[in-house]
Design brief:
- By secondary structure, the chain is of the alpha/beta class.
- It has two domains: 198 residues, Glycogen Phosphorylase B (Rossmann fold, 3-Layer(aba) Sandwich), CATH 3.40.50; 156 residues, Rossmann fold, CATH 3.40.50.2000.
- Helix content is 40%, strand content 18%.
- The chain is built from 13 helices and 14 strands.
- The strands form three sheets. Strands 3-4-2-1-5-6 form a six-stranded mixed beta sheet, sandwiched between helices. The chain has a six-stranded parallel beta sheet with strand order 11-10-9-12-13-14, sandwiched between helices. Strands 7-8 form a two-stranded parallel sheet.
- Helix 3 runs parallel beside helix 4 and helix 4 packs parallel to helix 5.
- The longest helix is centred in the first third of the chain and has 22 residues.
- The mean pLDDT is 94.
Length: 370
């Protein structure tokens, strides 16, 4: 079997055992990460993959990152020069920090290198929650960093068309593919339909929470029995409360553990994603499985999951008036909500199932390795 080394960012909270057990039918290898959870640190093997999870304190982030980089380099040196173990392919979660580690480690090991691209790191909207100067700096820095890392790659796996348009001219002789990441959909079902529009996420500006609030306020009086539910982690609730104001039909729900998400999505009436910048949002896919009608911004990877007028509705980025019209249309049309929900579930089963994911991923790895 060909050996793959996965370099995953920390802190690691979810092992994705199903993924590695499934990949063990075709490959073996190692997983490198760090965590502060003892149960994960103690785990040594997942299927055909050895887990090397270093215990690192998260109190000082820069120090934690430095320790992780050293940990990965020492691992590569030990495998290459002491154990004489051949590793064929290095996969990293992103083309940023883990991507830089992947460049170093793959060259030490003499292995092929293929970073995944899971976010829209070069979008200016991605940094809206920082100051203007910082936003411009990080957008430029991340783009340069990605170009540097991708220049050393043999293959690239991304999530939606156009995600790496900034690098397209340099893609010659590289194996590339795009499809959404694996999402465990087993527990997502249509439980009921409460008259709530659910929006999930943080940070405030990038996720377009202000856009959703302004849109809902325009139509709240037309649908007095509906509410807008904002689910997410907000360490400082001041800005959110300022935008909600005195509208009693909008409320914030504190963050929940992932195991509780099937209930929140399964009971919602409409699921909304008003992000200014987004990869391929997991909760939109989970809503598809739960037969929920969805509204999303026509930007980045969101149109991959929503076919406008077929299984959901799309609106122009930052256009809260257009979003309000879509909200009102769905809230007042139960038949349309049902039709969109049924179409969404059929699509997610046919196009985004775990079977489809593994078929595409294994094919990508095999093509790289041959």
């Amino acid at each position: 079997m060909k050996k793959i080394l996965f370099i995953w960012p920390g802190p690691l909270y979810n092992l994705q055992e199903y993924k590695y057990n499934k990949l063990s039918d075709s490959f073996c290898g190692h997983i490198l990460s760090f965590s502060n959870i003892q149960e994960i640190i103690a785990k040594k093997k997942i299927g055909g993959f050895d887990l090397h999870c270093k215990k690192i304190s998260l109190k000082k982030k820069n120090l934690a990152s430095a320790k992780y980089i050293v940990f990965c380099i020492i691992f590569a040196l030990r495998k290459k020069f002491i154990e004489r173990q051949k590793i064929d392919l290095v996969i990293t979660y992103d083309p940023l920090k883990t991507g830089l580690i992947g460049v170093i480690v793959s060259r030490l090991l003499g292995a092929k290198f293929a970073p995944e691209i899971n976010g829209t790191y070069s979008s200016r909207y991605n940094f809206m929650d920082k100051s203007k100067n910082k936003a411009q700096f990080y957008a430029r820095l991340y783009t340069l960093l990605m170009k540097f890392v991708l220049s050393f790659s043999h293959g690239i796996k991304y999530q939606y068309p156009g995600q790496i348009s900034f690098f397209e001219k340099r893609l010659k002789n590289r194996v590339t593919t795009y499809f959404p990441n694996l999402v465990n959909l087993d527990k997502f079902i249509n439980i009921s339909e409460e008259k709530e529009i659910l929006i999930v996420g943080f940070p405030f500006w990038r996720k377009g929470i202000d856009v959703a609030i302004k849109a809902f306020k325009l139509i709240a009086h037309d649908i007095p029995d509906w509410k807008l539910k904002i689910l997410g982690w907000y360490p400082d609730i001041t800005l959110l409360n300022e935008y909600i104001g005195d509208c009693t039909q909008i409320y914030h729900h504190k963050p929940v553990f992932y195991k509780d998400m099937p209930e929140h999505i399964g009971k919602s009436g409409i699921v909304c994603c008003s992000s200014r910048s987004e990869g391929v949002p997991r909760y939109l896919m989970e809503a598809m499985m739960a037969e929920k009608p969805r509204i999303g911004t026509n930007v980045d990877g969101i149109p991959v999951l929503i076919k406008d007028g077929f299984d959901g509705l799309l609106f122009e980025n930052e256009n809260h008036v257009q979003l309000s019209e879509k909200m009102l249309l769905l809230a007042k049309n139960p038949d349309l909500r049902k039709r969109f929900g049924i179409a969404a579930k059929e699509r997610v089963i046919n196009e985004f199932s775990s079977e489809q994911y593994f078929k595409k991923l294994i094919s990508f790895y095999n093509l790289l390795l041959t």
